Each structure stands twice: as C-alpha cells, then as structure tokens.
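batch_manifest entry 22 of 60
target: Phosphoglucomutase
source organism: Desulforamulus putei DSM 12395
requested by: lab member K.T.
priority: normal
notes from requester: please return tokens only, no post-processing; we will run our own comparison against the previous entry in this batch. if the run fails, retry once and flag.
--- input ---
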Amino acid sequence: MTHKISFGTDGWRGIIAKDFTFDNVRLVARAVAAYIKGQGLGERGLVVGRDNRFLAEEFAEAVAEEFVQQGIPVFLCCGATPTPVTAYAIKIHGAAGAVMLTASHNPPPYNGFKFIPEYAGPALPHITKKIEENIAKLQAGEPCDAYELTPPEGRYGRLLEEEKPRACSCTEHNPFDDYVKHIASLVDLQAIGRAGLKAVIDPMYGAGIGYLEHILGEAGVQLEVIHNHRDPLFGGTLPEPTGKSLAELKSRVKAGGAHLGLALDGDADRFGIIDAGGEYITPNQFLPLLYYHLLTVKGWRGPVARTVATTHLLDRLAAKYGQPVYESPVGFKYIGQNLLEKDCILGGEESGGLSIKGHIPEKDGILAGLLAAEMVACHGKSLTELLQQVYAEFGRLYSERLDIHTSPEQKADILDQLKDFAPDELAGQAVREKITLDGTKLVLADGAWVLIRPSGTEPLFRVYVEANSPEQKNQLQQQVKDLLKLR
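--- output ---
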C-alpha cells in the first residue's frame, strides 16, 4: 500500500522507521527538487539543516544526496542547527530555499521534513500542495510536469564526499557566526550587559544548544545552563517549553536568584520563559509585553499580526497607538506572510512562535529569549511587574485552551452543528461577531471570545477562550461544552 505523505501546519512529520523512512525522505526530497526545478531556481541551491533526533545526520545526508543527484547545489549545515538559523542561511547564500529535518516539539519517536522557500519563512499552502502533487506523481511513476528528474542511483548511506567530485557538489557550512551577527543587530546587547542580569538557559537537549549561551555570555550575563547536550530522548519528556515541562528550570531560577529562565524547543523555533519568581510567562502574556516594549522603548510603529487563537490584548495596544491588527488562521506561515506583506513590526501565536520586523519571517525562539532579556534590562522590572503595568493600562484578559477528545462519530456530528452555530449570547453577553477564518470564533460585546477548532488528524476539538475574569472564562467553557455536547 502506498503511504500518503502530506504537509501539515509546519511540514510532514512521521514516526521514525514506520513512516519517516529513508525511502520516504528521499521521495520527498525528489519532490522538492522537482518543485525547485519547476520554478527555475535549481542553480541557486538548497540549504539542508537538521536537529538532534535519532539518525538526524543520516537523514540530512540522504536529502543532500538526492538534491546533488538532481544537479542542485547543497549547503549542508554542520551539526544540529535551529530552524530559524537554517532559514537565515537561505539569505546568506541567496539559496532557493531550505529543508529542515525536525519534528520540533513532537515526541522522540518522530521526525519531520520542513520545506522553507526562498523568502526564509514557512511554505504557504499553494507551495506544499505542489510538493504533495509531485510526491503522488513520483509514487505513481509519473513525470513531474514538463521536467524530468534524474533516476535515483547508488546505495543508501553513501558518504557525501563521494559526490564532491561532481560539478554540483555539497558544501558544508556553519551559519552560526552570520546568524549571531544578524541577531545582535536586532537586540540591545549593550543594555543587557549593563543590567547585570543572571539567567538560566534550557535548550531542552535540542538544536538550540550554544546559541543563547554564546550571545548572552558575550554580553556579560551571568549564566547557568542545563540540558545542553544531545539526547534524542529529550530526558524522557517532550522538547516543548511549556509551564508543565519546565519544572527544573523554574526551580533553578528561584534557587539561583536569576532574573530569567529561557527555554527553547527541539529545533529552537519556539520559546519558553520563566520570570524571576519562577512563574511561567505564557506566549499570550509575552506577546503583548513585547509589542508594548517595541512601541514604548524602541519607538517603533507598525501593525501586529496574530492568529485567531492569540490574545486580543494585542488589539488593545494596537488601538491605542493607531495600528492595524492582522488576524490569520493558525500556522506561522500566515504570520510570516503578514510580516512580509503588511510591514508588521511583530507577529506571533499563542503556541510560542514569534518574529519581528527586520528578521526573517520564521518563528525564532532564540530571538524571543534575547528580547525577553532586553525587556528586563531596559525596563528595570521583572516581566511579572511589567505585565502588571500593562494590565493596569489596558485591562487583564484570561486565556485558556481545552483539548476535548470525541469519537469519530461525535466529531462528525459536532462539525455539522458548527455550520449553523450562532448563539445570540454567551455568558450573558451578546455575540457581536462570528469569524470562520479557522474554526468557529465568537466575539462577545465585552471583548471576550471563544474559538472552536477541530483537529485535522484526530477526533479532537480545541476550545480556546479569552475572558475578562476567571469566572467568565469558566462560564464560557462550560456553556460551549453544553451547547455542542462536548464531554
């Protein structure tokens, strides 16, 4: 049976040795090569990066070999490389794009294949659709449009050095220095250095090892670093920097009297932040803080981009400063598009991804951690204290996401109900607006909102609520579950 390979919100992912096999990885690489050739960009070459998972080096070499076989030059990143650094390497080389082999924050048995086009941000749906079409044609033994690929040859696992005598060889490259120089231009490292900060860094055994340590260490920050060696099992947990997974980081921050704890996920594109008191700062809290900092301290002016599931506190800040807000479906590819096309100074999502003006349109946890340090240094306050200042001026909002499992039959029934789901009021507030950009979102008269999004792969619904009080949040959650019979 032919295995169907599809690209989700951030690439194709599968279980190593079951779905994510050398055969399938090489197949997807040939489909990307066909896409690049079809765009007339083959001569510009492709960057190949990878994280710290099982067989990471071997998978990266397999992808590089396939591109070389098709006459496409390859810039192979040396060692584990974060997704944002791999993306930035596109700019360094003027490449046609990059492939990042990572499953990001997914469990250890998974790996993934992410294609990043020449603009150095996540591939938009029309691009991944074309790659998926190429995959299907290759599986069926059909040519990919008007161009042909060189038939695969040789044995799996051969060394790249065997390809180097060819005209289109594979060049190894370490983008560390170029990336660090660029990122230093976006952050006030002098202010960080003057502040006498102490920080604890947790790269969670992932590809981000060495980046925050180097940049902050050079700036003069006193550092403690944990989980900074390769472990494909990620210490027996998920490489996802959330409040639940950062217990050790919290305790180290408190025990050492640090100003910040900064964590990265498996490929360093998402961030996790612990404040001086050991409190986890959620992305829905950090994004408004950062927008406030960009507007007030840096003096920037410009729109903000957020997904449908991300806090509307950003909207309140934007309204005061006369700036538009661009709402998008879930997926950083849409945020990246707004950063490119709408001149946004900040784009972010509630799941822990962000980027700013002047950077690539790809989420970057390293940049987020550095900006957190800059904020503490410039304001002379902890992030919690700064958050209270923002709440005092703009009001506080309470956000939470519930994941509710159903049976496949229940999911189908609820999806049918959602087509006409338009209550006049919820939690005693009139429903002001219904948004169906991604799922079903109801915005209430007092600014509270609820979003119901079905999973694309599981019998599961995600219910996001943002409210003006904990009581209203609980009431909205319960009422939506009752109305849709979600249990």
